[in-house]
Specification:
By secondary structure, this protein is an alpha+beta fold. It contains nine helices and 19 strands.
């Protein structure tokens, strides 16, 4: 009557492994089935239990290093029957080992991950000795367990693994430490550092040049727009006062009133010069507004009357509150487009007039009468 798998391990396999130098700390029995990631936790996939995890160890190192697995079979089974399953473990690098064996206690088969070759069956009493397997591992991987440089392969890489890590954590750590890294000579390191410093300086210089190019391009675009606008105005139709085609209807409201405190608040600081872009808009309550503000509608042109040389005018697409230092302008929709008015108010053509009038005040400011008294040729909408 032949032994079952457990009896085969106890009576046939264990004695040979002990005789070959695989003491208790060189063998780990019955490792868990592989873990398959599923969401946040994962799950066990199949049975897939490897009976022995063979390890090598050096007196100077803290823990044994797994180098192979053995799949045990019942005495009457074909020893190569477990090879496919064991090779699957190896191919998946489940344990990050080099060798996979299968045995029924009398004969064994072997799979070498380095050569990707299988061999056997061989007589199990001829199974490689611990020292022999250690030497084979050193030749195959270039990692000699007796060398101090191999120390990282025998220990966890962080305090978080001060407790016993799970097999896949241990395998991942060893796989990372096994990656070959070439360290250049000191002279080569200096040369690389110097070269990197030069390249970083060149990148920084290119970045400065790029920023200047963007600024120059913006100036060119601004100049082109100015010339186009001036040409348009000079060749326009009837000459009108701004007050003939634009007006202020907005009423002042209390920004602390709960009906208005949640409205967006726009001040001159929120408007980008010339482009009219709006930045960092918050509610009147968030800005801590207390004094009266103008209530404007979407499509109104907001012009900052303080320091006209800053050329600040915006065309918001939302309703809100604006500073009392701004004019919320509505246009005659049949004669003047709001978008065209915003361009006109930020042009040099208008700004030269505004600056001249504002200089007469202690604080450069264009009052409402001066604004509406500006006279300009108005092109037709169509």
């Amino acid at each position: 009557m032949t032994y079952n798998e457990a009896e085969t391990r106890y009576h046939l396999i264990d004695p040979v492994l002990r005789d070959k130098g695989y003491l208790e700390w060189r063998i780990k029995l019955e490792t868990p089935a592989p873990v398959e990631p599923t969401g946040a936790k994962g799950r066990r996939r199949g049975n897939g239990r490897t009976d022995y995890l063979l390890c090598v160890r050096h007196p100077h190192h803290e823990k044994p290093l797994p180098v192979g697995v053995i799949e045990a079979k019942a005495e009457g089974e074909d020893p190569l029957k477990g090879m496919q399953q064991a090779k699957d473990y190896s191919d998946c690098q489940r344990f990050h080992v080099q060798y996979v064996f299968a045995t029924n206690g009398h004969r064994y088969g072997e799979y070498d991950k380095t050569t990707r070759l299988s061999s056997g069956p061989h007589a199990f009493p001829d199974f490689p000795h611990h020292n022999t397997l250690s030497q084979r591992y050193a030749r195959a991987t270039g990692v000699d367990p007796a060398e101090s440089s191999a120390k990282l392969m025998f220990m966890a890489d962080s305090p978080s693994f001060s407790v016993k890590p799970r097999y896949y954590q241990d395998a991942a750590i060893r796989a990372a430490f096994a990656l070959p890294i070439q360290v250049p000579s000191i002279g080569e390191q200096r040369r690389i550092a110097t070269r990197l410093k030069e390249q970083l300086a060149a990148v920084e210089e290119a970045g400065v040049a790029s920023e200047q190019c963007v600024k120059d391009l913006a100036k060119l675009c601004d100049l082109g727009l100015e010339r186009s606008l001036e040409s348009c105005l000079r060749s326009g139709g009837e000459t009108v006062y701004l007050g003939d085609v634009a007006r202020i209807e907005a009423k002042q409201v209390d920004p602390c009133d709960t009906r208005y405190s949640h409205f967006p608040h726009v001040s001159g600081e929120n408007i980008v010069s010339i482009s009219g872009e709006l930045n960092n808009i918050q509610s009147a309550e968030q800005d801590g507004m207390k004094s009266g503000k103008y209530l404007f509608d979407a499509g109104d042109v907001l012009y900052s009357k303080l320091r006209p040389y800053l050329r600040k005018a915006a065309l918001p697409t939302f309703s809100g509150l604006c500073s009392a230092d701004m004019y919320p302008l509505k246009t005659d929709s049949l004669r003047l487009l709001p978008s065209f008015l915003r361009l006109v108010l930020t042009s040099r053509y208008f700004t030269s007039y505004a600056n001249e009038k504002a200089e007469r005040s202690r604080m450069p400011k264009l009052n409402r009468e001066q604004l509406f008294e500006w006279k300009f040729p108005l092109p037709a909408i169509e």
